[in-house]
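ok so i was messing around last nite and threw this chain in just to see what happens. nothing serious, just curious
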Amino acid sequence: MTQIAPNHHTGRPRAAVILAAGQGTRMKSPTPKVLHRVGGRAMLDHAIDAAQALGCTRIVVVVGAHSPQVGEHARKRLGPDATVVQDPPRGTGHAVLAAKDALADFDGDVVVTYADCPLLTAPVIAPLFDLRSAGADVAVLGFEAADPGAYGRLVLAPGHVLLRIVEAKDAEPAVLALKHCNSGVLAADRAQLFDLLAAVGNDNAKGEYYLTDIVGIAHDRKLATRATFAPEAAVQGVNSQAELAAAEAVWQAGRRAALMTEGVTMPAPDTVHLSWDTQVAAGVTVEPFVVFGAGVSIAAGAVIRAFSHLEGASIGEGALIGPYARLRPGAEIGPQAHIGNFVEVKKVKVGAGAKANHLSYLGDGSVGPKANIGAGTIFCNYDGFEKFETHVGAGAFIGSNSSLVAPVRIGDGAMTGSGTVVTADVPPGDLALSRTPQTLKTGWAAKFRALKQAKKDKKA
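result:
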């Protein structure tokens, strides 16, 4: 057995090679597999996030010629030199070799990860570098599968010494009986990794160059090969829409559990849908059937009531949102403000203590502190070509069914009568009215009903 020299690799620079060249045919979607989203974020971005959280100073994404969108996405995130192309695809070992030139000047450890494993986070991968620091030449991340099926098997000696990895299609019955499986994630010194890959052949059932073969080669060379293990859910890959939904469910459950541990109240957590960047402070209550899109932050004491949808919005302390509210990007809801049922807010700053409790659209502008927006109020912000702003001053009162035709300003403490269409600024403290004066026709309704009833009786 090869002995490990402790602390041999401590503090070495880190790089990541993210494999993203798969065809993804089982997804049956025009969207490339690794650009499908979990938690509202592309799976490729989850892989990049993990690499960056690990401190990888170089990240290379291996893409296929069939999916230029994947390369564009990676370069937009990481820069123009972030991708290399594997063409044609000839296995995982061949894919990692595609990154050889891109890392030619890198001196440090390389971790190989996968863009279709959205639950693979930095804490799950980090033990590989611990093994490297302890002297392992090749460190592999494994898991124990409930149903090993088509997974590659880890053949181990005592002490998690890894002898070799055998793909299921090439495995004998005794190996297939093993439950320790290969996640595909491994770490090694950059120069040693590519030296081992140079010795990999394709004499196997698929005729491909397997990355996993480097383990057996390394062991034969008396190098230290070790395995560490992660929960099965953390390393699960996505190859179909059903597996994407399963990964989403695991991700959502984990994020909800984390928020509740941090002090967020969720009476029915399984009904709440979070985004990758949702920020919820301790002391917030999130009622059932709430959906968070990207870019939402909620301060302590706020209540998000049932059936609300929030995206790109910030909510202040003690604010009350919903039920059935919709907050769109640019909505800034101040402390103690109320946004009620069937109210939509887009790109509006709502001041502290202001209220819009029912059936309103507030788009582009601002609502001052303690202003009241009556039911049926509309910020008429669009003329078919351009957007314009509406600004409602502090303490203003907007009567029900008012239409505020932007650009317009309602001054502090001003009021509008119900049913008013406001087309010009209203000075502070003034009342704006624009409805037709009411007229009465005495007895008209009674005469009308009598006439109609007589006609109905004649037909009977």
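not much to say yet. Residues 241-432 form a domain with the UDP N-Acetylglucosamine Acyltransferase; domain 1 fold (CATH 2.160.10.10).
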